[in-house]
Design goal:
The structure is a homooctamer of 129-residue chains. Chain A has five helices and five strands, in the order E-H-E-H-E-H-E-H-E-H. By secondary structure, chain A is an alpha/beta fold. The first copy, chain A, has a single domain, classed as Rossmann fold (3-Layer(aba) Sandwich), CATH 3.40.50.1970. A five-stranded parallel beta sheet of chain A has the order 2-1-3-4-5. In chain A, helix 1 packs parallel to helix 5. Chain A is globular and about 35 Å long. The interface between D and H is small, with 7 and 5 residues.
């Protein structure tokens, strides 16, 4: 049993992931982390998402960041997306994450803002009915 | 007792608010709606936020949309921000809502995307520990 | 046996789809069209992509347009992405489609430019080894 | 009694603050400086704004820079906002500061342009009826 | 003797000017309005700016909006700039007005936001030493 | 006989070209590379394009990157464009390459993304009728 | 013998062309107009550019507007580029025209600003050594 | 008697100016250079512009770059504007220079592209009637 599942799309996002994990550890919630790309590991991603009992997902991705939206289409749990600045200052990943079509919601936080992703996940954990 | 509190910054956001409320009603969760500006009604806003027992907040705002962030600084509940396209196609409100400083998280959805705000709120309601 | 598979993410993209299909018909290549969202119909999408013998895919999508990239991760055929202007003049879908991570290529054409998607598909059909 | 109150949202804005303070000192006007975040110290901020007799406020903030607008909603004095470039070259803070809703005016100067904030404050000081 | 001088760069800005003048009239401050382009009427502009005893200037301009900056270089009074959306949603005039070089400050308000220009001018009028 | 022709507009694009050539070599397809500017070597460019029997073209260019479009107007083979980030984070070259007028298609990949250009070219090679 | 050659890339640019021609007629300079696309009529374009004795070229184009740059590579006369707003408010054509590589200069005027193209051409006509 | 007058708005633009002067020297045309700000030295600027017999002006400026437009309003000679990247990658100065109102034309070249300014000036010198 784990509270929060953190998934990053590439090893190059590790710096942002470390801030998330550090903050979650400080706050005393349980978590696990996987590196799984929506494009390169779709099967492993789907298997992991459907198999975990995490309450909240945090997805970290740069460029045309499909990861948070793909996870949101595979679970009914809340999914937090963290855009990473790889090109164009992160505007590409921000728009890719936040502009989801109606029906598949993603909770986007600021560019490279791992800390807020962790804090938002904890707020969600503590706010269910 | 109410599940979700929807707050919009101005009457001009009503079209987006209606989509949120309609969707929440369809899903059978309880909610209430207030029009309270972070800039023009700060006291009423603070009073309402501290007094409600809502589990999740949805804040709708255009232009330099401070409303979601201000609410997030007044509660420990999750706050969902909905940017409204009034100028620049909504880029101003999107950046104002999503680029929160570390420590005060807001869950941003897409521009004018009231439906996803409602759906994200319901996911959060159902996902607490 | 079909030459080109055209997939759109939503019925609201039909105007762009019609231009693609019209042009393909004019050029005398065979094609079929499906409305399948990467987020709302992931299983049907995967089934269709793996089952068709089309040589080239054309994927039409707006907002955070994950469709072309998801298809490209499910096939080794060339995938052409057509960004649709729904918000921000189409900048969101353009960046979502074109800024793919290394390893999963998508061939992006201009915003709402269905005609060029059709013409590019035909060039590809006629240029294999 | 002080002429100008300079408030910055974070210690990371200190470089811009130093340019403001240096210029104010050169010009021989009295001032004081506080680090108070609209999101993290709302009570202290409100107490300071309502308690000071400063004629003009200068608010320095990056990202989704709500500080100038929040101050402007708490005082009838002129408020000058200085956007700081933390992400996206400062476009986020610029739009957050300048695109205020009708009714709560903020005087925005250029990105990182502390000198002009100081000079504008002095012009205002010397121009009342 | 007049409190506020409103200058617009072109007759096409009249809609924004009307909102400014209406608000100033409501607030009971005295004002006058001129249509003077920084590019097409530089001499008349300079003559008017140096001759008026207005306490505050409001300059309204679209496109590459040089008017507020030019006025600010001709007076030591505060100058408020109002960007008008003629092309690119007003981003061109916003950047032209707000990104002034150090030494010549302009107080920029939001795109097409005549009301806030009027309100800011009144705050300035009432806040001198 | 060569599979793929790689053309770059300037020697300053060599870093991106090297990634393309390296990847093509790894994949075992034949290729050749020329440095030919659409603006500075139009005759040599036209001569090379009309003379080669390459199946696919990859064109690498920064700034107002006309090279891919000009090649596409000189051949009926597929042309892949790679925008290079020289100014504005590469937004200028991205828009110059992707926003082709109807009738002359270019397959655009991500900014500086030479690897995907190579992979897309290989997909095309293997997908003709 | 003609003073100014006006070339537009598409019939859809005619509204802007009409403003140019109207202004040139008013000013009493001689001119001729051709519709020639850099991508669809490269041979006719080159023939026309090399054959005319016009002193100045005005090139009107939207989207990835290669026309002005291609003309500038075929003549040593000054070339004025007029970006047309077809998509993204004209930002695509503006960047395509203005961001020319060193060595092939184009004189860019504002988006859809045919009048300034005409006036700039006349200034050039009257300013040679 | 001088062919080309180069005016820069600030000493911080010197790197771009040096490229212009170097290229003009190589090409054997006569020139002179002044550092004159439209905002800080309006009188000296106007005196210099009206007094010189230069055929062409090159104006170099960053931020809200009013210099080229102001010069164009003071002379009937062609004025070339060179945007300098100081903030936002130079997008602010590009839009400030290129988006001139109808009636006062400026010939804009690419961001930081001093070489093309020099080459365009030479083309103009050699192309009068």
């Amino acid at each position: 049993m784990v509270d929060i599942a953190v998934i990053s799309g590439s090893k190059s996002d590790q710096l942002i992931v470390d801030r998330i994990l550090g903050r979650l550890k400080d706050e005393g919630v349980s978590f696990e982390h996987r590196v799984l790309s929506a494009h390169r590991n779709p099967k492993e991603l789907e298997g992991y998402v459907s198999g975990t009992d995490a309450h909240v997902f945090i997805a970290v991705a740069g460029l045309s960041a499909a990861l948070p939206g793909v996870i949101a289409s595979q679970t009914h749990r809340p999914v937090i997306g963290v855009p990473v600045s790889a090109k164009l200052g992160g505007l590409d990943s921000l728009l890719s994450i936040v502009q989801m079509p109606p029906g598949v919601p993603v909770a986007c936080v600021g560019i490279d803002n791992g800390e807020n992703a962790a804090l938002l996940a904890i707020r969600i954990l503590e706010s269910g009915r």
